[in-house]
């Protein structure tokens, strides 16, 4: 069989050079199938096929070249000359090679990730050999199709910078939520911005992660909202809900982004969490939500659900959560006006450095500290 294949390929290559080959494109694809069905193709057969491909691929129609590229891209016995000839076609043929596993170096991957031809960059996201740099380059293209292919690629881990970009887009496009929530390589604490779209189990995991983060880096304790301020919120809730949300967001240190996020969440989970973060009791918060008079307020089931949520979350954790959902930076705690000696720390606890913004505390740090606590315990 190998010698017969070699003889046939050599004859086809001669015909191709002499210009006397009919149906050459079909023959090329058939011979490719024949060779690929052989577990260990003979070197002579591969060399003859490479010569045939070099002669026929430049003149082949695009569908035939694309079909051949799909076959040969990831085949470990593919003759280099055949791959190079296909690669030289560029465009859709090169994209087919990239999409189906053409071996590439990291620098080549980066070149294609930044290529102005969107077809070439769009052929990369499903590959398992993407580096962090390439993933970030692809994410920075802000191409929705590329984003979704990256999120669906479970063979890669999303670097933090790329994940932040995808989460930010998920705040404006709800379709991003489920692909990100379905990834098991992303720590729950990182998925806090998608809390409203998460299922019950993932919600609990996110709350547990934020509670662990708060225990390791506690935020400053806030005084509960005063009766006068809350009374004003109640009055606004019935007449001007948007103004009530603006006031609530402002009280928490948020801005328009937080207010609009609370307003657009029809489930009122975010409003309930914001009220909890402000220190309102469950009963007070429930009165506020009912005063809104919307669909959630008229649903007994929904009211029970938000009450259960408020009872399950501490104010400090609720504050972290609403800020994450709205994309608002959690403000650092203000310094207290008390003397802390700069010298002779023997009789005083170690002085803490400036508080870091929450976004600077990575999930990896949290998990490492939790592991250390478990080992010490």
What does this structure look like?
There is one protein chain. The chain has 377 residues and is mostly helical. The chain is 61% helix and 0% strand. The protein contains 21 helices and no strands. It has helices spanning 2-18, 24-36, 43-56, 62-72, 80-89, 91-99, 106-113, 118-121, 132-140, 144-152, 160-172, 177-181, 200-216, 227-239, 241-251, 256-264, 269-277, 282-291, 300-312, 315-326, 363-376. The longest helix is centred in the first third of the chain and has 17 residues, at 2-18. The protein is rod-shaped and about 95 Å long. The protein starts with a helix and ends with a helix. The relative contact order is 0.06.
Mean pLDDT: 86
Q: Span from first to last CA?
A: 69 Å
Tell me roughly what share of residues is in helical segments: 55-70%
Based on secondary structure, the structural category is mainly alpha
Succession of helices and strands: HHHHHHHHHHHHHHHHHHHHH
Rg over CA atoms: 30 Å
Q: pLDDT under 50 segments (min length 5)? A: 334-340, 342-364
Number of strands: 0
Largest sheet: none
**Proportion of beta-strand residues:** under 5%
What gross morphology would you assign?
Answer: rod-shaped
How many helical stretches?
A: 21
